[in-house]
Amino acid sequence: MKLGLVLSGGAARGAFHLGVLQFLEEQNIKIDTYSGSSIGAIISVSHASGISAKEQLKIFSSNDIKQVLKFNYLNKGLLKIDTKHQILNELLPIKKLEDLPKKVYINAYDLKSKKLYYFDKGDSHELCMASSALTPLFRPIKYKNMELIDGGLFDNMPIKPLLDLKHEIYTVDVMPSKNILNEKASYNPIKRIKRKIFKQLIENAKYSIEHTNHYITSPKIRHFKMFTFKELNNCFNLGYKEAQKHF
Question: Does the predicted model carry a pTM greater than 0.85?
Fold first, then answer.
């Protein structure tokens, strides 16, 4: 049975993904197909390119990775992503998704067409950065007449491209929901807005969990901050330990 791996978005919590991948490498468990969103997209493409989990962790822990993110002076986002920075060549050495030795799908949402796409062809740097362009924090990525943003806002565990492939699917979630849709009705306007915004995202998450063969996460992942690189090693170790329970 072929193995399909789905990696969710979750910014710096992606170190949990790397811990899972480290365990797979040590056990010589091969991945046939990847599908990722946001940081999960970057890690998927990098791993399919031959960059090991520990090599990726080293890159994400470096000062160079911070240079990829630059202030955008409030022009359609607080930050912009430098898709031309040299560090991306180390992280994503293969420039076209279709040239990867393993099949990889990554998602991104086009603001113009208002459509979510699952890409398996195209520029790996541009599309990985687009899949990570979390608005309003990051500026959209212009790509082939599209304005792409983080696909994880709409489908954070992109399992759909794998469902027709007859793979044994493992889905790794670094953004486990507290199931806010099932909270009791509240007159708090902030909570009402929150439920409305995340309704589609949570419904898609439920769909992915229901259709995966193995769901990997940990309630402890919520304790890790998303936008700091100071906790990467501990998050990595948590992912490694959790993988031991599922493979």
Answer: yes
